[in-house]
Design brief:
six-stranded parallel beta sheet, 13 strands, alpha/beta, Rossmann fold, 2 domains, globular, seven-stranded parallel beta sheet
C-alpha cells in the first residue's frame, strides 16, 4: 500500500479542528498506510469515538519533532496553524484553517476551508489562486437528526476569551438572551455547549447567567451533543461580534452551524467570515449584523412557528451540501484518488 504522512496540531481537544483533521485522515486510510505526527500524546481510540465519533484504528502515531525528515511518502498532508514541513513527497497538500500567521508554504497545494479563507490567503500571503483549492470541512450530517423539539436556543464552541484568532461572542449572546427574557420571553432556554479552555472566563459566564434559564454543558460525549442539537429549535453563532475588524476573529467556516442545521435548528448567525457561504439569509436561516438583529430575528422565529418549521426543513436540506460523502468526493478529486 502507498505511504501517506500527516502532520496535525489538532488531536486532543473537543472542537472542529480535530474533527476536520481526522475526517480527512479517515478518507485516506483505505488508500494509504498513514503515519500521523502529533506534537503530543494522542487521545485513546475510545475517547476519539465517544466524544468526536472518529475512527483512529489502524493509524501509526509518532511524536512530532521539528528536526525530523518527512521524506519518502507518496502523499503528505500538513494540518497546522503554525508550520508547513518540507518533504519530498510526490503529492503534498496543506490544510489552512486561516492565514493568521505566515510561514513558508514551499510548493504545497493549499486546501482552504472556505472561500473566505482562500480570499485571505491570496491577499495576506500573496499565494497564486491556482495553488489554492477550497475544500469545505466534512460534516457528519447523517449523525445529526431532529427529534422532539423544545423551546431551546443552542450555541456550541470552545469556551475561551475573545482573541484575534477567534471571538466566540459568548457574553453578547448571554446578554441578548437575558434582555429577551427581561422583555417578556417565557419558557425558553439557552444552552451553551463546549470545552472549557479558560476556567476564569467560564466562571464569569456562569455568573452572568445566574437566575436565568441558561445552562452550560461542558465536554459532553458525542451522543449527548446530538441529543441537544436534535431538541433545539434555534442555533446562535456570533463569532467575530466584538472584533469586526479582525479578519481572523471571524468564523472561518462554521462546522457547528452545519451540524445544527442538519439537526433541524434554524441558524441565526453573524454575517461575517464563512457563515454567508453556509446560510442563505431568509431562506434556511438568518445572517445578522449586530446583537439587535440577533434578538429581532430570533423573536420573529419564536412568534411565527410555521416559518420556523419551514426554515428548519430547508436548513436540513442545505446541510447536506456539506455532508462528509460530498466532501470526500471533492477531496479525492483534488488528490487524484
Amino acid at each position: 500500500m502507498k505511504k501517506c504522512g500527516v502532520l496535525t496540531d489538532h488531536f486532543n481537544q473537543l472542537g472542529g479542528g480535530t474533527v476536520h483533521s481526522f475526517k480527512l485522515i479517515e478518507f485516506l486510510k483505505p488508500h494509504y498506510d498513514v503515519d500521523v505526527f502529533l506534537p503530543g500524546l494522542p487521545k485513546e481510540k475510545e475517547w476519539m469515538k465517544d466524544f468526536l465519533n472518529l475512527d483512529t484504528k489502524g493509524l501509526n502515531f509518532y511524536k512530532f519533532k521539528p528536526e525530523m525528515a518527512f521524506n519518502n511518502y507518496d502523499l503528505f498532508l500538513n494540518i497546522s496553524h503554525w508550520r508547513i514541513v518540507e518533504t519530498n513527497a510526490k503529492k503534498k497538500f496543506a490544510n489552512i484553517f486561516f492565514p493568521q500567521f505566515f510561514f513558508p508554504t514551499y510548493d504545497y497545494t493549499l486546501l482552504a476551508n472556505s472561500q473566505y479563507t482562500k480570499k485571505n490567503i491570496i491577499t495576506r500571503w500573496g499565494i497564486p489562486e491556482d495553488m489554492i483549492k477550497v475544500l469545505y470541512p466534512p460534516i457528519m450530517t447523517k449523525e445529526f437528526n431532529p427529534s422532539k423539539k423544545t423551546n431551546t436556543i443552542i450555541h456550541v464552541s470552545r469556551i475561551a476569551k475573545s482573541r484575534p484568532e477567534a471571538d466566540k461572542g459568548h457574553k453578547q449572546m448571554i446578554t441578548a438572551f437575558k434582555e429577551m427574557v427581561d422583555s417578556g420571553l417565557k419558557n425558553w432556554h439557552f444552552y451553551v455547549v463546549g470545552e472549557i479552555q479558560d476556567p476564569e472566563y467560564y466562571n464569569e459566564l456562569v455568573s452572568m447567567s445566574k437566575n436565568y434559564p441558561i445552562k452550560f454543558f461542558v465536554s459532553i460525549p458525542f451522543n449527548e451533543l446530538k441529543k441537544l442539537y436534535g431538541e433545539a429549535k434555534i442555533y446562535w453563532h456570533m463569532t467575530g461580534i466584538t472584533m469586526p475588524n479582525q479578519l481572523g476573529a471571524q468564523e472561518h467556516f462554521g462546522m457547528t452551524t452545519v451540524e445544527a442545521m442538519s439537526s433541524g435548528c434554524v441558524p441565526v448567525t453573524l454575517n461575517s467570515g464563512g457563515q454567508p457561504e453556509i446560510v442563505h439569509d431568509g431562506l434556511d436561516g438568518y445572517l445578522v449584523n449586530d446583537v439587535g438583529e440577533l434578538k429581532d430575528k430570533t423573536t420573529e422565529l419564536i412568534e411565527n412557528q410555521n416559518k420556523l418549521r419551514n426554515m428548519s426543513s430547508l436548513a436540513i436540506r442545505r446541510s447536506k451540501d456539506f455532508d462528509e460523502e460530498v466532501i470526500k468526493k471533492r477531496f479525492y478529486n483534488i488528490i487524484n484518488i
